[in-house]
Design brief:
Keywords: Membrane, Transmembrane, Transmembrane helix. This protein has eight helices and 28 strands. By secondary structure, it is an alpha+beta fold. It has four domains: about 70 residues, no CATH class; about 140 residues, Sandwich (Immunoglobulin-like), CATH 2.60.40.1630; about 110 residues, Immunoglobulin-like; about 130 residues, no CATH class. The strands form six sheets. Strands 9, 10, 11, 12, 13, 14, 15, 16 and 28 form a nine-stranded antiparallel β-sheet that branches. The chain has a five-stranded antiparallel β-sheet with strand order 1-2-3-6-5, with no helix packed on it. Strands 19, 20, 21, 25 and 26 form a five-stranded antiparallel β-sheet that branches. The N terminus is likely disordered.
Length: about 475
């Protein structure tokens, strides 16, 4: 008889379990205490009825607890207290929107450094901590600005005894006088290794129009300090995953070769097929989806490293607290042009575009000459320098936020006689942007040098807004 009652009770609560909504903690406590009180008042009844009542109460309590926790795979209502970061607590607000840094600090992957530069011109950099792996390094640093005006850390680079190439991405804060906490990320080329002895150099420039537009060293303050890294330990971090899958967008093939997943991020190697009929400038909104269900999060890409080959390395954030969860790459499409449309031919003397991908590129009504002075470029007394001003006008579309990119030209161009020349990137070459509800414009100002060149001039386009929207995905892990 007792076994039959237990079976009926079990069947009843299994049915309730399928229908019962989540129960709050207060209701749970009330139900448990009420049940226990009821059981106490009837404690003198026969043993069989007592046993049945007790089983019911315990089953209800267990059911309510499971429901409160959200069941298998559900989301807990309880808040998890933040982990103590110790000496790195000052970086909590900075890391709030950077999952790589936040989870590396949670996982204890930050190595303290406590290394400072000498103070110079009222500026000082302190390297507080380091996150490093086989593909790069994240440096957490403090910037002290003891001057009376804003100043910007415009670059932070690493140097070693032997040459190696790194690409940097950094945040410099607003540069106000006082102390700010920032970070810099440096990525290495495929196959490169960090030397044991490194020198970090930060360039600081006053936040004034004159200093920001100038390439003169008189506005630049170089802050340097040396430190060592345990390269053998760094080599142990992270793992490589062979993917070897292909995505096709608009008939263009992108080979996803492999991924390296380490404390500093997820480094995804992609190769654009050399048989493609279009040149792919970039992929649109590359994102790695981490986890699954309600716990799925988006890991964004903030850098693409290209090395004059079909190989592109996309760098994504990484959740260092999830070493085994599923990862999936998704893209919304590509920016690409037919290879026959990459040529831009301009007669700068006649102010005429002879060949372009479309009619969105124009020569605005601006001076074609510019005289550089010490205040603008540090080249006092230089003769008039040819300046090509190109304007790209685009009408608004529903996907502007996702697909908007600027245009750019290759550094090398040829004159009317086929002689090669170079654009002066570091002096008088810059971009301006503007827009409203009717559209937006990007204006590129290119310094072509002071020589009078045979016309027309032929350039190669290396970036251009021409989206091909077609969502694709590839499983990474």
């Amino acid at each position: 008889m007792f076994e039959r009652e237990e079976e009926l009770a079990r069947d009843y609560f299994q049915a309730v379990d399928r229908q019962l909504p989540p129960v709050s903690e207060q209701k749970l406590d009330a139900a448990i205490h009420a049940g226990i009180g009821e059981g106490s008042r009837r404690g003198k009844n026969v043993r069989r009825r007592y046993a049945f009542t007790t089983a019911v109460i315990l089953t209800v309590a267990l059911l309510f607890i499971i429901s409160w926790l959200g069941g298998p795979g559900g989301q807990r209502i309880t808040a998890v207290p933040p982990k103590n970061w110790g000496e790195f607590e000052a970086y909590r607000s900075l890391a709030r929107n950077n999952v790589t840094i936040k989870t590396a600090l949670d996982a204890g992957l930050v190595t303290p450094l406590h290394i400072s530069t000498q103070e110079k011109n009222g500026y000082k950099i302190t390297l507080d901590g380091m996150i490093a792996d086989r593909r790069g390094m994240l440096l957490l640093y403090t910037f002290e600005n003891r001057s009376v005006q804003k100043a910007m850390v415009t670059g932070l680079s690493l140097k070693g005894p032997s040459n190696f190439s790194s690409t940097s991405y950094w945040t410099g804060g607003d540069g106000s006088p006082g102390i700010t906490h920032n970070y810099a990320q440096l990525t290495l080329e495929e196959g490169q290794k960090l030397p044991e002895r490194l020198t970090a150099e930060a360039i600081v420039i006053p936040d004034t129009p004159e200093a920001q537009l100038s390439s003169s060293n008189k506005f630049r303050t170089s802050l340097t300090t040396g430190f060592t890294v345990d390269t053998a330990e760094i080599e142990k971090f992270g793992r490589e995953i062979d993917i070897r899958k292909t995505m096709t967008v608009g008939g263009q093939r992108i080979h996803i070769e492999k991924a390296y997943i380490g404390p500093t991020g997820i480094y995804l190697n992609a190769v654009y097929d050399d048989q493609n009929t279009k040149r792919i400038f970039s992929v649109i909104k590359p994102t790695i989806m981490s986890g699954k269900g309600e716990k799925e999060t988006a890991l964004t890409s903030y850098m693409t490293r290209s090395v004059n080959t079909p190989l592109q390395t996309m760098v994504f954030h990484n959740n260092n607290m999830d070493a085994k969860g599923p990862l999936k790459l998704t893209i919304k499409g590509i920016q690409a042009l037919d290879k026959s449309d990459l040529k831009l031919v301009v007669d700068t003397e006649a102010r005429k575009i002879i060949q372009a991908p479309d009619d969105r590129l124009t020569l605005p009504d601006r001076s074609t000459d510019i005289r550089f002075t010490e205040s603008s470029s540090g080249v006092e007394g230089k003769a008039k320098s040819g300046q090509l001003v190109l304007q790209l006008s685009t009408k608004p579309t529903p996907n502007d936020e996702m697909t908007r990119v600027s245009f750019d030209l290759d550094d090398s161009f040829t004159d009317g006689e086929g002689v090669k020349h170079s654009i002066y990137r570091n002096e008088g070459t810059f971009w301006e942007s503007g827009g409203n509800s009717e559209g937006w414009t990007d204006t590129g100002i290119f310094n072509l040098g002071s020589a009078k060149l045979p016309q027309p001039l032929t350039f190669t386009i290396i970036s251009y807004p021409n989206p091909i929207l077609e969502e694709q995905s590839v499983r990474i892990r």
